[in-house]
Every structure is written in C-alpha cells, then in structure tokens.
Design goal:
globular; binds iron/sulfur cluster; three-stranded parallel β-sheet; Rossmann fold
Length: 220
C-alpha cells in the first residue's frame, strides 16, 4: 500500500483528469483484478494433440500452480477459463458452446494451437470448424502445432494482463442486463449456427426467386 501511495502522489506520473475523482475505484480495480488474475481455474478438458502439451504445463516441470491455476475443474460451474486445446470438430462445437454458457462470469477463453485458432492442418476439412472464435468469444490465441507448454504459459500471462486492464465500472457481468447465452449450434447434415438462420433464410429466398436455367436434354 505504501508503494501505491507514493505512486499515486508522484509528480512525475500525474493522475489523468478523468481518474482524479475516481481513485477509490482505481485502487479497488487493482485489488479485484490482482486476486482474480492469480486464481484462474481452468475447465478440465482437452480435444486433441494440443491437450498433451496443456497437461505438461500443469505437471511439475512447468507447474502452472505458480499462477494459482492448479485447480482444474471438471464442472463448468466452477471454472473461469476454457482452454480450447485441439481440433474442434463440428460434432464437438455444440458441447463446447453449451459448456461455455454454463460457466459463470467472469469467464475467459484461450484458443490453444492452430486448430482451435483457425482450423490448423484440417482447415476446410468436412468435419472441422475454422476456429472456435466463430462460435464463442476468444481472449487469447496461442499459435503453434502444438504450442509448447512455455507458449501456453505466455498465453496465461497475456490473459493476466487482460484481466488486470479491466475495470469494475465497465465489466459486462455487473451490468443490469448481464450477458446473454450464446445459441447452441445445431448438429445435422452440417452444423447450423442459430445466429445465422435469418441470413440462411434470406439466402434461401433469393435462391428461390432466382430464374432457373433450362437444361438441355441430352439427345438420344
Ligand atoms: S494444432 Fe497441431 S498439435 Fe494442436 S490439435 Fe491441431 S494438429 Fe494437433
């Protein structure tokens, strides 16, 4: 607290005008964010090869317990962080969105590896989506195939920076209206995102109105 007092009163670092009347909130933000950033509990699941590196990051050599993150939770109700570690198949997306909706706010998502970030080596495969960010919001992307445990830990540090930049005044989970659940995609012959149904319907109408070209019957 002494350092913070000196920092707030240091003439070399004048306080911005818009914060002068808001020192209490700024200090509260620091305490709130400091404690949140150092107790992020990840949801316990993995999707493919990237998950092996995620498990290595939790083991003794890399020891993610240093960040207060050793408590991986098997229940989304008790988790703050979803690490999407691996290839996201169309069959898996509805389950991932459902789990995301079941996590309480504040919640964060890391897309670990090329597959989770954009489809990776399976991009445009018949059964794979081009990145989980088409369905749920992603906070940190980690490149690599697979990313090393060190890269994942760097992603954790970036997530901490994001958490520490948030303010009690603007975070969505304390707003009156709250945050809305994301519609769960429907798995059928192909994956349908309910948020795109109006677009799909509009395209269907355009296609129905378009003149159909007469096809020539083969002779014989
Ligand atoms: S990014 Fe590479 S290592 Fe990770 S799940 Fe995809 S194929 Fe496997």
């Amino acid at each position: 607290m002494v350092d913070q007092y000196h920092e707030l009163n240091n003439p070399d670092y004048p306080i911005p005008e818009d914060l002068k009347s808001n020192i209490a909130i700024t200090t509260l933000d620091r305490v709130y964010n400091w404690s949140r950033a150092r107790s992020v509990w990840p949801l316990m699941f993995g999707l493919a090869c990237c998950a092996i590196e995620m498990i290595a990051a939790a083991a003794s050599r890399y020891d993610q317990a240093r960040f207060g993150m050793e408590v991986t939770r098997p229940s989304p109700r008790q988790a703050d962080l979803m690490i999407v570690s691996g290839t996201v198949t169309k069959k898996m997306v509805p389950q991932i969105v459902r789990l995301y909706n079941q996590m309480p706010e504040p919640r964060y998502v890391i897309a670990m590896g090329a597959c989770a970030s954009g489809g990776g080596p399976f991009k445009e495969g018949y059964n794979v989506v081009d990145g989980i960010d088409k369905f749920i919001p992603v906070d940190v992307y980690i490149p690599g195939c697979p990313p090393t445990p060190q890269a994942l830990i760097y992603g954790f540090i970036k997530l901490h920076e994001k958490i520490e930049s948030q303010s009690l005044l603007t975070v969505p989970w304390y707003k009156k209206e709250g945050t809305e659940a994301i519609p769960v995609p429907v798995l059928g012959p192909d994956l349908v995102d309910p948020r795109q149904t109006s677009l799909i319907n509009a395209q269907g109408k355009i296609a129905a109105q378009a003149p159909v070209a007469a096809t020539e019957q083969p002779a014989g």
